[in-house]
UniProtKB/TrEMBL annotation:
Residue spans of biased composition, Pro residues class: 20-39
Regions crossing the membrane: 49-76, 88-114
All copies of domain DUF4190, residue ranges: 49-107
Keywords, sorted A to Z: Membrane, Transmembrane, Transmembrane helix
Region (Disordered): 1-39
Domain of life: Bacteria
Name the UniProt record assigns to this protein: Uncharacterized protein DUF4190
Pfam families linked: DUF4190
Organism listed in the record: Geodermatophilus normandii
Amino acid sequence: MTQWDTPGYGAGQQGQQPPVGYPPAYGPPAPHGHPPPYGYPVARRTNGLAIASMVLGILWIYWIGSILALVFGYVARSQIRERGEAGDGMAIAGIVLGWVGVGLVGLGFLVAIATV
């Protein structure tokens, strides 16, 4: 018999002590009748395009790295919202660094045109 099978014990019994030998209740049972996991929480998977976006934004690789950082960053953000993955901060960093790279290339073109 598990703690969830014990009558009068569970999420609806606020303020009651669990029976002797049972751990404290943390809430209702998880779906399919399994108790909630104990120990460390399971880490979410990090989106690969978010990692690629941040790396390309850092490396710059002339102008193509900035463009790819923007593309990968925007695609990664939409995938992260859909899938519930981790890495939104890395995608945002890649997007910001991509726009900085594009801005520097644009500024370089303006300076080159102005000096001609």
